Amino acid sequence: MDPAIPIETIAAQANLMGASLVGATPVAPLLESPCQQLLPVSRQLLKARSVVVLGLAHTEGQPERDWWDNQKGRTPGNRQLTKISHRLANWLKKTFSAEACDLPYNPGRGGIFLKDAAVLAGLGVVGKNNLLITPQYGPRVRLRASLLNRPIQYKRVLDDFAPCDACDGPCVQACPQNAFQEGNYQRKRCQRQMQKDETNPIIRQSPVVGMPADFRIAYCRRCELFCPVGQ
User: Fold this and answer.
1) Does any domain span residue 38?
2) Rounded to two decimals, what is the model's pTM?
3) Is residue 46 part of a domain?
4) Among 224, 229, 218, which Cα is nearest to 196's?
């Protein structure tokens, strides 16, 4: 049986490649999570031993990382995470002869529920705003995941992290669509705001004369930016 790879070793390398946060979880508890059970289990996921979760900080001063631009990868932040994931897979193969596979972002297209995976990997907890809350960056972080055919030595260190318990919920109050007015997150209300954002994209003129202008959709982030954790 192949020995487990220490998560500290993987994290150190991923940090050098640009990742802000790195964690890992065995596949088994992820398969047991309520959200993941809503989808058919892919053969790829069943064959894997571990999930590596990568996080990229998305602070208020970096809005462009999440601008939807209709190019490959859809956003600059996701493209950066994908690049890190592929580079990390190459390093794992060369260093440990381990096979790693970058996962699509969308759970319905072969991906996984990233918030669930991140919680199991010890990166944070799901907060009142229905987002992953991390100690370092609050909810201002973007996620990507890879499957690995090797076990990983990891430790969960967030057992006492409960940032929403004593918080009066400025994130909930800041929502322009009152998506939390019924006590829990209402996706349909959030989607109304997303539709508004899509009708008002940021138009950027091409620096090349004669080339058409392109667009960026800046989706609402109020529930992220009003969270006091990790400020």
Assistant:
1) yes
2) 0.91
3) yes
4) 218
